[in-house]
Specification:
Blueprint: H1 26-49, H2 55-85, H3 90-109, H4 113-118, H5 122-130, H6 138-145, H7 154-162, H8 169-181, E1 186-189, E2 192-195, H9 201-205, H10 210-225, H11 228-248, H12 254-259, H13 266-278, H14 280-294, E3 299-300, H15 318-328, H16 334-345, E4 349-350, E5 362-364, E6 372-374, H17 382-404, H18 414-434, H19 439-475, H20 482-497, E7 501-502, H21 524-542, H22 545-557, H23 563-570, H24 578-599
Helix pairs in contact: 1-2, 1-3, 2-3, 8-11, 11-19, 13-19, 14-24, 15-16, 15-17, 15-18, 16-17, 17-18, 17-22, 18-21, 19-20, 19-21, 19-24, 21-24, 22-23
């Protein structure tokens, strides 16, 4: 009998997150929401007063702005978390909608501040930065002032700001076309016809029946191909917009503009691509093994996601899963595991599915309040145990960052975010593998880690290489037509998948269905983040207190440093190829380990 999904009201309180560290209830939220609205006129008052010649006035303005942002963040997190509990809850949706309205007013009210700080004289800013009084704002001001060469006149900035909405057209049209307008139909399976959608496509690719995989694959991409000119034009438009914005803001390229906020050298991006390219033979070795294990004469693109090892059935209640995660993370020290355990069992986590609850999982850390985790935990899904570790890594990163930095520089970058989460996954894998005596379970764990590394390191690097090439073509003045885009993507498919793979005519349409490409030069961070976490987990597992403490210092650094600097603090230098090279070596070891385990059967 199918299990029924409970209503939110039926979930025991101890299985829900406790949001009282933000607000004890909606009524308290309402009081502070009114206070936030009352703070808006202060922005205009500070603007009229000005601060160009007074350090005290600048300090007072920054203090007022900080207090506004702290309350805004706190109100926003509470309202957003309440919505995710039950997206059909109209009360929660009302809170969030009202928050968004006032938040937008606040952004407009304070929009003058950044240009005004950019306009300050260098000598005045240096004097302020040297004062201990500005200690909490030193990082914020220093990072903000880096953008001064790329800030335009007030009139020009206003014109660019007015383009913000229209600049989203290509991305929004792509989303509507691929998620709403395209109807992929149904695919016949042994259990009858099943709907083919963007969400179910990967489920079809994991089916054991090869004929079903092939039918779903060809049907899926044929629908994209039917709209290839529209898709090509939309992506080309997005690339041209990147080119335009880089030119008007005086960056040497679109990529330089994208990497500038994190102060990441373009050499880091190039090192990733070149190092992965040098190690493609080990990826090709994996595809050769996959063809052998599946017993295929020729490997096709629809054969690369079907599991090589059937999922191991294991049942871990939530509390038991927490115990396993905590034991796996003991190399991080007693303070870390005690804090995390208390959080996972004491109100950080909304554990189980209920009607209307957002799917998946996330960690939501803020300066005030606990670093909350949403899950839809299932006892019989081993991956959910890893998800506890993953989201727990994010939450502990937020926990340390908020307690060791002033608000204006506590928040870490996306470049760093995936390090803390995937680091925890590495430790959990090692713990489970070392404590297993079952070769089938070990094979499943290794195969899963191979798939994760492939998806994060190799696949995201291929995407990064495509983005680099597409922007180079546009910036050189060449036409970025759909034929050019497909040709470039097919060349990358053939290079990354190697000689074992035979592609379909429609295979290169994959390059025109990736939503991340509309947020240019973003995906490389997944690959660098995983590489860093692998290197750091090896240091902690095989090192001593110095390695552990260096990693914890990274968690504590928050946004006080640029990401390359904070990772160096932890003991890994992402400006060199070595971390990526080490990740590739581990992948090669996993492939050989899997070959041995599977051939034992």
């Amino acid at each position: 009998m199918a299990k029924t999904i409970p209503e939110r009201s039926e979930i025991p309180a101890e299985h829900k997150w406790n949001l009282s560290s933000l607000f004890k209830d909606d009524a308290e939220w309402e009081r502070d929401f009114a206070a936030l609205s009352a703070m808006l006129p202060e922005a205009e008052e500070k603007k009229k007063k000005g601060f160009s010649a007074s350090a005290d006035a600048l300090f007072d303005t920054l203090k007022a702005y900080e207090q506004y942002l702290i309350l805004e963040e706190r109100l926003g997190y509470y309202a957003q978390l309440r919505v995710t509990e039950d997206e059909g809850n109209s009360t929660a949706r009302g809170l969030f909608a009202r928050f968004v309205g006032v938040s937008s007013q606040g952004q407009a009210a304070w929009s003058w501040l950044s240009p005004a700080i950019q306009a300050l004289g260098d000598d005045f800013v240096v004097e302020c930065l040297a004062s201990q009084k500005f200690a909490d704002y030193r990082v914020f001001l220093t990072k903000l002032r880096r953008f001064k060469p790329h800030v335009l006149s007030e009139a020009e900035e206003r014109l660019l700001a007015l383009q913000t909405e229209s600049a989203q057209t290509a991305q929004e049209a792509f989303s509507v076309l691929t998620n709403v307008d395209l109807n992929f139909g149904t695919v016949e399976t042994p259990e009858g016809p099943k709907p083919l959608t963007q969400s179910t496509f990967i489920s079809f690719m994991r089916m054991q029946d090869r004929s079903v995989r092939k039918a779903a694959y060809l049907q899926f991409y044929s629908h994209f191909e039917a709209h290839q000119n529209t898709l090509g034009t939309l992506y080309a438009g997005s690339v041209k917009l990147d080119k335009y914005q880089a030119q008007v803001r005086k960056y040497p390229s679109s990529r330089a503009m994208a990497l500038f906020p994190d102060n990441v050298a373009e050499a880091v991006y190039d090192n990733l691509i070149s190092t992965v390219n040098e190690n493609l033979p080990i990826l090709h070795r994996y595809y050769s093994l996959r063809k052998e294990i599946l017993g295929l004469e020729g490997l096709r693109h629809y054969d690369v996601y079907v599991p090589l090892v059937k999922e191991v059935k294991a049942s871990h209640g939530y509390e038991e899963a927490v115990d396993i995660v905590i034991e796996a993370l003991r190399p991080l020290g007693e303070d870390y595991v005690r804090t995390l355990r208390n959080g996972l069992l004491g109100g950080w986590v909304d554990r189980y599915e209920n009607k209307g609850k957002r799917s998946g999982a996330f960690s939501a850390g803020s300066f005030i309040g606990e670093p909350y985790i949403l899950m839809n935990y299932k006892d019989d899904v081993l991956n959910d145990l890893f998800t506890i570790a993953h989201e727990g890594g994010h939450s502990m990163h937020s926990w340390h960052s908020a307690r060791n930095n002033p608000f204006m520089c506590y928040n870490y970058t996306i470049f760093e975010a995936e390090v803390a989460s995937t680091f925890n996954e590495q430790l959990v894998f090692s713990y489970l593998y070392d404590h297993s005596s079952d070769d089938r379970e070990k094979a499943f764990l290794v195969a899963t880690r191979i798939d994760d590394t492939l998806a994060t390191l190799f696949r995201q690097t291929m995407f990064a290489e495509f983005e680099k090439r597409a922007h180079e073509i546009a910036e050189s003045g060449e036409a970025l037509t759909v034929d050019v885009l497909r040709k470039e993507y097919r060349a990358l498919l053939e290079k990354y998948f190697g000689p074992e793979m035979a592609f379909e005519n429609v295979s290169d349409m994959e390059g025109l269905r990736i939503p991340h490409f509309y947020n240019a030069f973003y995906v490389y961070k997944y690959a660098t983040g995983l590489s860093a976490s692998i290197a750091l987990s090896e240091k902690v597992l095989h090192g001593g207190m110095a390695e552990r403490d260096a990693y914890l210092d990274f968690l504590k650094s928050g946004g006080s440093r640029f990401p390359i600097e904070s990772l160096k603090l932890a003991g890994v230098d992402m400006s060199t190829p070595e971390p990526v090279e080490a990740a590739c070596r581990r992948f090669a070891g996993d492939v050989e380990k899997l070959a041995v385990l599977l051939h034992k059967k």
